Amino acid sequence: MDHHGRDSCGGGCALLGPDLSRHGNGVRVMRLNVGCGDYLLEGFVNLDADPATPADVHADAMVYLRDCPDATFAEVYAGHFLEHLTPEGAQRFLAECYRVLAPGGACAIVVPDTYEVLRRYVARRDECVPIEGKWWNLSDLDAVCAAFLYSPIQPTPHRWSYDIDTLARAMRAAGFTRLRQIDRERDPHLAAPAWFQCGVEGVKGEAA
């Protein structure tokens, strides 16, 4: 236990978190919010590696997922997490998300929308956006690199970029089907609405 009374682990699937919703038969429905930072989702196990965050569980996401049994969760959400992984790491992460989902479970991934960011850079309209407490002019390539493409302004920089098509491709490669685009302004998982993000939700196929 940490000093907040939450579980902190370097390994092991510590499925301890908030009060979770239940099916009518009383079986708990586990939902996981990966890389939650300071934004906690009600009814989810909120997971983050940073012990300074108010997460329910502090652990490396891949270590945590690998120690979870198959079909543990009904839903997995990861907002602005995937871009911090290499493409190979992202595919391993999505494969683990697929494995720990129950058949019919959903995985939703939100990332910066590189297409929309670069479209505004090319337009050179001096459009500014607030990121990490600072305003960035998207007509300036240094600003685009700092805020979106590489993001060294964060404790862990970005290691890859996505648009809606390449994100869907990555999720499809992990086995997800019935892909749908997440509403970047109104989806209830989002920490905040923003034109510069995009998301895809996919479903794990039902068991044969």
Strand and helix layout:
Blueprint: E1 7-8, E2 31-34, E3 45-48, E4 57-58, H1 61-66, E5 73-79, H2 87-100, E6 101-112, H3 114-123, E7 128-131, E8 134-137, H4 141-149, H5 164-173, E9 177-181, E10 197-203
Can you summarize this structure?
By secondary structure, this protein is of the alpha/beta class.
Question: Uncertain runs with pLDDT below 50, 5 residues or more?
Answer: 1-11, 16-27
Q: How far is the first residue's CA from the last residue's CA?
A: 40 Å
Order of helices and strands: EEEEHEHEHEEHHEE
What percentage of residues falls in helices of 4 or more residues?
A: 10-25%
What is the radius of gyration? Answer: 17 Å
Number of strands: 10
- Helix vs. strand class: alpha/beta
- Proportion of residues in β-strands: 15-25%
The gross shape turns out to be globular
- Walk across the major sheet and give the strand order: 1-4-3-2-5-6-10-9
Number of helices: 5
The largest pleated sheet is described as: 8 strands, mixed
Rounded mean pLDDT score = 89
